[in-house]
Design goal:
CATH architecture of the domain at 49-78 and 98-200 and 469-502: Alpha Horseshoe
Oligomer: single chain
Strand content: 5-15%
Structural class: mainly alpha
Shape: globular
Largest sheet: 2 strands, antiparallel
Length: 502
């Protein structure tokens, strides 16, 4: 099992606060460091960067229900879940597109993304003011710029035009600015990720598993290009990641999402989480807890909060024999299927009864299904918060390259890439007929490959398929962007203007 050491960074200076950061075996598993005045500059910057990783792990806007609502509930792959009366106010906005301008979910999502941007800006400004240009400092700045780009990519896809804050904020008034056009936000994302790709290492080795790499920057930028239909640029970056030889598909699909699959050969970036075997050290992430099967404690199935449950539509999307179905979905009243990552247990029936106390849900997210033995040892039976959140996977790079090739008229080149993904899923190879046929095949593969991983809604929007697929549930074209939270508009004193369609 994972091992851990607590890391404390003590930064000594009159104008600096003492900064203590807890670490885990992922990339923070290092011997304790103590900075002196001689190495204050680099030590202080490095401590700030570690704080960015921690902030990402602990922010609801990236790892809890607000993120799930914006990225998953709005798709046809999942719904709010939980008990109908639990968070009932979330269902209409995110399952049925009756967006609400002042709701905790969207307010928190907005605030947490700008909080990460603010922390990144502070680190970047500190490095600039101290004129830190040594290799280690450039890596730290590259990490900060990646995180800023990551936050802005979520914001620009979710809201469209948003305030462009690429400077350090010393007081709230400085952040009270008007929106910038989405094109300016994408320009910042591109510049940040180009810098990150040029200055981050290709690999970190065993010293820092889970730490950002140039491959992560290139993958995220390829996704940003894909969203704008810039096929050539997205293909060039995807090909660079593929040709680097750094990544490969994990041999089994379900293995990606097990404890041993964390930071595997397919992993490009994950939010790191850790809880020690006896539960005494907790550097956890609430991502899995929000979605675990929810039933009575007595039934042995009180595994989480029960949100973000797969839909009938997703279940029906899988071809016969696709191993990803049993690796993605737990079926109420059925075996958890050890052949696709289960532990030989039978789930309670979906019909509520007083003994099992199960919620009326037919399906559950299996990708965050925790090992019962580890749950028992930690004492976290209903809080499996040691599970990493997978953000960027190599399978995405392969399918992006396939899609770009096809859109550029090179479908025959994209076909073998699609078949790589299908082969891992135990499905037969497909043949190339024409661009439209392969385009539909790629859309299908993306859906079942990334089920309940937060990709589907944004894929439907960028393909122009959202109205036809989601329209029956209430989606209209203006729903591609969520309204800017009303509290943010109210605080701006008129500088921040609501999205014009809202």
């Amino acid at each position: 099992m994972k091992k851990i050491m607590k890391i404390t960074f003590t930064i000594l200076a009159v104008s600096f606060m003492i900064l203590a950061i807890g670490g885990c075996q992922k990339f923070l598993d290092r011997k304790p460091l103590t900075a002196t005045l001689d190495d204050l500059n680099q030590g202080g910057l490095e401590g700030q960067i570690y704080g960015l990783y921690s902030n990402l792990r602990n922010s609801a806007g990236f790892t809890s229900i607000p993120w799930l609502a914006m990225h998953d509930f709005r798709s046809d792959d999942s719904e709010k879940g939980s008990d109908p009366s639990d968070g009932a106010e979330w269902s209409a906005p995110f399952d049925h597109y009756a967006y609400v301008k002042d709701l905790w979910a969207s307010n928190q999502y907005w605030d947490d993304h700008f909080s990460l941007i603010n922390l990144a800006n502070t680190a970047i400004q500190n490095a600039d003011s101290l004129k830190l240009t040594d290799p280690a400092s450039l890596i730290n700045v590259a990490e900060a710029k990646f995180f800023r780009a990551y936050a802005y990519f979520d914001l620009v896809r979710s809201y469209g035009d948003v305030p462009k804050i690429d400077f350090r904020v010393y007081n709230a008034a400085q952040a009270n600015i008007a929106k910038s056009p989405a094109s300016a936000i994408y320009a910042l994302i591109d510049a940040d990720l180009q810098f990150a790709a040029a200055n981050l290492p290709t690999v970190w080795g065993n010293q820092y598993p889970g730490r950002l790499t140039s491959g992560a920057a290139k993958t995220l930028q390829a996704k940003a290009y894909m969203f704008r239909g810039n096929w050539a640029s997205a293909l060039a970056l995807s090909n660079q990641v593929i040709s680097s030889g750094t990544y490969s598909l994990n041999s089994s699909y379900y293995g990606i999402f097990k404890d041993l699959g964390e930071n595997c050969s397919e992993s490009i970036f994950e939010i790191q989480a850790y809880v020690s075997a006896n539960g005494s050290i907790d550097n956890g992430c609430i991502y899995a807890t929000t979605q675990g099967v929810r039933a009575s404690t007595a039934s042995g199935w009180n595994l989480g909060w029960g949100w973000n449950t797969p839909t009938d539509s997703l279940v029906k999307a899988y071809e016969t024999g696709d191993v990803r179905k049993g690796s993605t979905i737990l079926f109420s009243g059925q075996s958890d299927d050890p052949s696709t990552g289960g532990y030989g247990r039978v789930l309670p029936n979906s019909t509520f009864d007083i003994v099992a106390g199960a919620l009326p849900r037919k399906f559950w997210n299996k990708k965050i299904y925790a090992d019962p033995a580890y749950r028992a040892s930690t004492g976290h039976s209903d809080n499996p918060n040691w599970i990493n959140k997978r953000i960027l996977r190599y399978a995405d790079v392969i399918l992006m390259a396939a899609e770009c090739n096809n859109e550029l008229g090179n479908g025959a080149t994209g076909l073998p890439l699609v078949n790589q993904i299908r082969s891992r899923a135990s499905l037969p190879a497909i043949t190339f007929t024409n661009q439209a046929q392969l385009r539909n095949a790629i859309k299908q593969e993306r859906r079942v490959e990334f089920g309940v991983e937060g990709e589907r809604f944004f894929d439907l929007v960028r393909w122009g398929d959202a109205i036809s697929v989601l329209g029956p549930s209430g989606y209209t074209n203006r729903c591609r962007f969520y309204p800017i939270p009303q509290p943010a508009i109210d605080k701006s004193g008129g500088l921040l203007i609501q999205n014009p369609e809202w």
